[in-house]
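To illustrate the input format used throughout this study, we show a single complete record. The first block contains the structure-token representation of the backbone; no residue identities are included at this stage. The design step must infer an amino acid for every position from geometry alone.
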């Protein structure tokens, strides 16, 4: 790993002022960033720690508001989330392992833009929006609009401050993934389904970002590439199988 400077701003404004240039990276939990730096994929000269920004609150009223620095473990253990959005709790239980969830943050999991992450397709299906802050102010966008491609996000020297998720209400929701090893491994395919009102279906892992489809017929048009988790044809078959299972589970979960 190449040497780097660690900066620890005390406010959001200070942090944004430091995000300037390709050699600077924001640092939340660091679970993915550190691995990429050790592998030499990234060589930032400065890391901007976000740990002092106090963006780790979980607020549940009619909607769910999650601070970007909330750890995945804190979200998993939230009683309010379990009662109002149980699909999130179920999904987090097989998102990597508890050691990672104790450190990894919601904002980092979204900004990393790895299509094998579980939260982006699920939050997209739930109709969640992210609020991002930059030097020019704030803007709000759907979670799915964060992504431009594999490991590419649409942030412009900006930071995610929080996520807003509408009430699940009487809708049914499910997220299923197929892994080639343990249940908490990276998925070969991930499918998120929310039924009721406006049905929302998102596919991930087989695609380079969370992709919305309307029904099973749309699977043929998906751009799927093979990798170590399986060939393109195999993954396309998995999408069909897991979509049917996720729809069944979502129907059974309707309140």
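Output of the design step:
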């Amino acid at each position: 790993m190449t040497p780097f400077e660690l900066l620890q701003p005390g406010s959001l404004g200070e942090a944004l002022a430091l995000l300037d240039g390709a050699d600077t990276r924001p640092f939340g939990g660091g679970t993915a960033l550190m691995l990429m730096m050790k592998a030499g994929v990234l060589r930032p000269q400065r890391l901007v720690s976000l740990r002092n920004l106090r963006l780790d609150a979980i607020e549940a009223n009619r909607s769910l508001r999650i601070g970007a620095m909330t750890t995945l473990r804190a979200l998993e253990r939230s009683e309010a989330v379990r009662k109002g959005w149980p699909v999130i709790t179920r999904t987090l239980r097989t998102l990597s392992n508890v050691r990672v969830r104790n450190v990894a943050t919601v904002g980092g999991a979204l900004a990393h833009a790895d299509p094998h992450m579980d939260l982006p397709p699920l939050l997209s299906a739930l109709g969640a929006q992210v609020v991002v802050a930059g030097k020019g102010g704030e803007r709000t966008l759907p979670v799915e609009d964060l992504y431009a491609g594999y490991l590419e996000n649409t942030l412009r020297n900006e930071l995610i401050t929080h996520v807003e998720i509408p009430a699940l209400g009487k809708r049914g929701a499910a997220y299923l993934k197929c892994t080639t090893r343990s249940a908490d491994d990276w998925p070969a395919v991930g499918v998120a389904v929310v039924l009721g009102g406006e049905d929302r279906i998102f596919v991930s892992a087989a695609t380079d970002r969370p992709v919305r489809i309307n029904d099973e017929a749309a699977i043929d048009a998906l751009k799927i590439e093979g990798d170590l988790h399986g060939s393109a044809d195999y993954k396309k078959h998995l999408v069909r199988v897991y979509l049917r299972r996720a729809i069944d589970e979502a129907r059974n979960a309707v309140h």
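Structural context for interpreting the output: The chain has a mean pLDDT of 94. The CA atoms of residues 11 and 229 lie 41 Å apart.
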